[in-house]
Design goal:
Elements: E1 8-14, E2 18-25, E3 30-39, H1 46-57, E4 66-70, E5 74-75, E6 78-79, H2 94-102, E7 106-110, H3 111-122, E8 131-137, E9 141-147, E10 150-152, E11 161-162, E12 165-166, H4 167-171, H5 173-178, H6 183-201, E13 205-209, H7 217-220, E14 228-231, H8 238-245
Parallel strand pairs: 1-4, 4-7, 8-13, 13-14
Antiparallel strand pairs: 1-2, 2-3, 5-6, 8-9, 9-10, 11-12
Helix pairs in contact: 1-2, 3-8
The protein binds beta-D-glucopyranose (BGC).
Beta-D-glucopyranose binds at residues 71-73, 81, 83-84, 110-112, 136, 138-140, 142, 156, 158, 168.
């Protein structure tokens, strides 16, 4: 019997502070070779960020298709919001611009949707039916929503008002650092956000992702939520893996 041909794609995760990139084996979500990371020129003009993406992708040999996870609403490859990027990004056809620059096929997807795809296919949400909500706690709060295994793209729940303030202004990982919040104070904010989200969506499972969840001991036991809570299994690689998966959508994709 012939062995199935392995498929690979490059996943690029453009975060508020760094651009992370690696080659991904689409058959098991494993990173192949080195993982690269460079700072994100978040407030620079569109061209500078595109150039940075091209530079990091060029570190990986071959002409594999590229999946771009971007910290914005992405509709059919076009950027529609820019909460933590230069506002000039709004309206830019990211997938088309990057494909021209990289001279290959590019798929663009919201960064939290990408992390969600990875956690659903290979991580903490694998095999979970019903409503699954994934939150990325980083520069902002990203959200991915799955209903019956199908991605509902771009939910933007990080901008939900929770008792008069945006969820991501309360409980993004950046806020803990910038406001020098204790674990207790930050967990209190996150619990308010979880309570509000639960009361609106009644998810069966909430998966928490982002750098701050790499070492969850200081806060995990303090979290209170009626839904089952899990920490992402792919940790800091979820965005990269999900971006790569988005180049070969099975039945759900973001762009
Ligand atoms: C953006 C989202 C993004 C999230 C995480 C939010 O501010 O509006 O699109 O997914 O940050 O990067």
């Amino acid at each position: 019997m012939q062995k199935p041909v392995k498929e690979f794609a490059i996943g690029v995760d453009v975060g508020g502070s760094s651009i992370k990139c690696a080659l991904v084996d689409l058959s098991d979500g494993a990173l192949v070779g080195e993982r690269h990371s460079i700072p994100t020129p978040a407030q620079d003009p569109v061209d500078t960020l595109l150039e940075a993406i091209a530079a990091v992708v060029s570190l990986i040999p071959g002409d594999h298709p590229v999946g771009l996870a971007f910290p914005s609403v992405i509709v059919r490859g076009t950027v529609r919001t820019a909460a933590h990027l230069n506002k000039a990004w709004i309206g830019q056809p990211l997938a088309t611009l990057a494909a021209a620059r990289l001279r290959r096929r590019v798929t663009a997807i919201n960064d939290a949707d990408a992390a969600g795809l990875a956690e659903q296919r290979y991580g903490a949400a694998r095999g979970v039916a019903g409503t699954v909500l994934l939150l990325t706690l980083g520069t902002g709060i990203g959200s991915a929503l799955f209903i019956g295994g199908k991605l509902v793209p771009n939910p933007e729940l990080g901008h939900l008002q929770v008792d008069g303030r945006e969820a991501e202004q309360r409980a993004a990982a950046r806020i803990k650092v910038e406001q020098n919040l204790s674990w207790d104070a930050w967990t209190h904010e996150l619990n308010m956000v979880l309570k509000e989200l639960h009361s609106l969506l009644w998810p069966d499972l909430i998966v928490l992702c982002g750098g701050i969840t790499e070492n969850p001991e200081p806060f995990l036991a303090k979290l209170r939520c009626e839904a089952q809570l899990r920490v992402g299994a792919l940790r800091a690689d979820a965005g990269i893996v999900g971006a790569a998966l988005a180049t070969a959508p099975v039945e759900s994709g973001g762009a």
